[in-house]
Amino acid sequence: MSTTPKVTEATARQRVHSLDRAVAGVDGARTEAQGLTVLPGSDGGRLAWHFTVRGAAADGSPVRQEVFVDARVGGIALSYNNIDATDAVPAEGTGVRMDGVEERIAVNKGTDGSYTLVDSSRDMYDTAGGQIRAYDAARKNYLDVANGPVTEDVKVVSSHGDRFDGAATMSGAVDAHVNAGKVYEYFKNEIGRDGIDGKGGTIHSVVNVSAQGRDYANAFWDGAKMVYGHMDGVPLSVGLDVVGHEMTHGVTEHSAGLVYLNQSGALNEAISDYFGNAMETADKGIAMSDPASGLVGEYLCMHRREAARGVRAA
Ligand SMILES: [Zn+2]
Fold first, then answer.
1. Where is the Peptidase M4 C-terminal domain (predicted)?
2. What is the pLDDT of residues 149-190, one digit of tens each?
3. 314 neighbors 306 (Cβ within 8 angstroms)
4. Buried b vs exposed e over 41-70: b needs ≥16 C-beta within 10 Å?
5. 235 pairs with which residues across the strands?
6. Among the four residues 48, 117, 217, 270, which has the most C-beta atoms within 10 Å?
7. Which among 120, 111, 59, 112 is positioned nearest to 92, based on CA atoms?
8. How many angstroms separate the alpha carbon of residue 59 from the centre of ligand 1?
């Protein structure tokens, strides 16, 4: 299949607005070009220009329309709203953390009356429909969960009532949810950054992975989401320094883009360590200049050894 477009990107952008009826109704539409892509199909695929259109629907709910314009004939090949919260509304619930402390947490309430660990209360929800979502891998092997978007077989954490305890606590989901919210607010308030991608994109945390059924005593950012295991039965997501460290890897990937190799790998680690520490000390009300601030953030990321090896080789 040829990957040379016959339709220019500028023409395709015009077609988004002249041909797609879903986009015509969007209030304050902002169109972002995502480049050329191939849509899968039985005929071997279809070359298309991809655009994301953000704005608001007539009822005020956020829209994030993904539109694909055929790059040969210029028609709309595919168009869908990438916000799946239309059947749920933001609500408040109670989360029981691993240490037993109960907190009011932001959740979603579905039309069926059930609740999910989905936070639609942050600024990014208004700007881009961005949410903070927690999923339970139910002890799946960490390698099967790593890399790419969350798969269908890994479910968002849900509850019949507005209280999240029991499995939602022991899996580390409540702590991951609370801490991801704190990290989001830290980046927003301290450096004016809207989420991991800086564009208010949804933040995904997957907890409760295993190493072939045994505790997987680590956590990592896999390029699309945070993944957390347990150490001696305690979920790694209980540590704000751990959650801050891993989410910062995502921020670094989307901003400085430091390749995970040699010196830049060590710098990538150092940046994550710094922010993880800064977030935890700020949360506990300790100044970074206080010697006690060095007592937190002793966490070792799975990448650490790799980075250290790179430095020695360089
Ligand atoms: Zn790290």
1. 256-306
2. 888 889 999 999 999 999 999 999 999 999 999 999 999 999
3. no
4. eeeeebbbbbbbbbbbbeeeebbbbebbbb
5. 230
6. 117
7. 120
8. 42
- Ligand 1 centroid–CA 174 distance in Å is 22
In angstroms, what is the span from residue 264 Cα to ligand 1's centroid? Answer: 12
Backbone angles phi, psi at 307, to 5 degrees: -65, -40
Residue type, 134: A
- The token duo for 215 is 């505790």
Query: Which domains are seen in the chain, by residue range?
Result: 9-81 (3.10.450.40), 88-313 (3.10.170.10)
Give which of 207, 185, 244 is closest to 98, Cα–Cα.
Answer: 207
Compute the Cα dihedral for 55, 61, 62, 67 and give only its sign: negative
User: Which contacts of 29-35 are long-range, i.e. CB under 8 A and separated by 24 or more positions?
Assistant: 29/53, 29/54, 29/55, 30/54, 30/55, 33/9
Per-residue pLDDT reduced to its tens digit, 21-77: 888 888 888 999 988 888 766 566 788 999 989 888 776 767 778 899 999 999 998
Cα 269 to Cα 265: distance, rounded to the nearest angstrom: 6
